[in-house]
Q: What sequence folds into this?
């Protein structure tokens, strides 16, 4: 009898629970400001949104995205317009110029802020050092390896061929902040590598899609003028690394190939070696930090760090053409990213 009575009570409880209205999800408002619509920016943002929704299913996440069109001034205008509205729960900036505008804004000092796809947060003045926290309620991660690690990797390939003279490599970049910062770091280490001789090949940063085309043409012209003194070039991160057709145009006009690139796409097109954090990893890592912030952990208490997941890619056809044997440990690291 006791067993029957217990079953009856359990049935009543379950029936009442099914009649109860579903608990409303807590709404969270996010604003995302993209510097410019190049693949690493838009893909990282898309992965961020997808992952955040997945790991916070109990919340209704409302995302509004703005495009700064490659302009720091446009990013500042967007922020000025946003300052007239209720503050969001979190502002996310993607890439350097949007992040610079957000970090220096006085309208959002107390609003939690998160950045991604920024290679040089120390040089941008966000924190005094990697591992430190920001006083302006901002956190995030650098998505690139340190300059020395990348030089060590390239030197490992070049050294395996027992060269009789250094490889002269043009450091292709624009004056876009993250790109020029990385090139300065590489140049500062140049004298430590007897197999590498680095030469800066620069073009002024120009905003917008038309600006990217002009920068591409300028770099191709510069490399053509210096092709006789170069063994290859280094395609640094920044807008030029995302430019359509740059590698193909340089190859057609000069025969030169990138010896190092900071995108997998460039390795597919002929770069000897590349090391990069892929968009999926960048977005997912940022989403985990966003969850902490949205669960009311202060961004001021989360240190700015570096990504710990990187993809290595090699192009064996380029290695054969340049007579540069790829060390076996590089091939193991590359796994699915060996191209020819």
A:
């Amino acid at each position: 009898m006791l067993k029957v009575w217990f079953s009856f009570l359990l049935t009543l409880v379950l029936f009442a629970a099914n009649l109860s209205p579903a608990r409303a999800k807590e709404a969270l408002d996010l604003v995302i400001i993209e510097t410019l619509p190049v693949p690493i920016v838009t893909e990282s943002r898309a992965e961020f949104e997808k992952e955040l929704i997945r790991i916070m299913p109990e919340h209704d996440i409302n995302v509004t995205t703005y495009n700064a069109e490659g302009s720091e001034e446009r990013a500042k205008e967007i922020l000025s317009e946003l300052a007239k509205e209720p503050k969001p729960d979190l502002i996310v900036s993607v890439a350097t110029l949007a992040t610079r505008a957000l970090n220096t804004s006085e309208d959002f000092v107390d609003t939690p802020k998160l950045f991604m796809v920024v290679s040089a947060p120390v040089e941008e003045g966000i924190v005094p050092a990697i591992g430190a926290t920001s006083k302006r309620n901002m956190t995030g991660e650098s998505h690139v390896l340190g300059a020395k690690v990348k030089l060590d990797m390239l030197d490992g390939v070049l050294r395996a061929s027992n060269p009789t003279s250094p490889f002269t490599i043009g450091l292709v970049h624009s004056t876009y902040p993250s790109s020029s910062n990385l090139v300065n770091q590489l140049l500062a280490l140049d004298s430590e590598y007897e197999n590498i001789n680095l030469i800066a090949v620069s073009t002024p940063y120009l905003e917008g899609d038309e600006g990217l085309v002009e920068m591409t043409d300028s770099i191709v012209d510069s490399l053509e003028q210096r092709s006789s003194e170069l063994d290859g070039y280094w395609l640094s991160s920044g807008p030029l690394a995302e430019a359509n057709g740059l590698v193909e145009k340089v190859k057609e006009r000069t025969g030169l190939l990138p010896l190092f690139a900071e995108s997998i796409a460039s390795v597919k097109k002929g770069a000897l070696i590349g090391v990069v954090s892929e968009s999926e990893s960048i977005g997912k890592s940022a989403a985990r930090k966003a969850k902490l912030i949205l669960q009311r952990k202060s961004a001021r208490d989360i240190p700015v760090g570096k990504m710990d997941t990187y993809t290595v890619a090699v192009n064996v056809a380029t290695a054969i053409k340049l007579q540069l044997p790829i060390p076996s440990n590089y091939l193991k690291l590359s796994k699915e990213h060996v191209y020819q």
Observations:
- The chain has a mean pLDDT of 90.
- The CA atoms of residues 292 and 298 lie 8 Å apart.
- The longest helix spans residues 208-226.
- The chain has two domains: 26-143+279-306, 147-276+310-339.
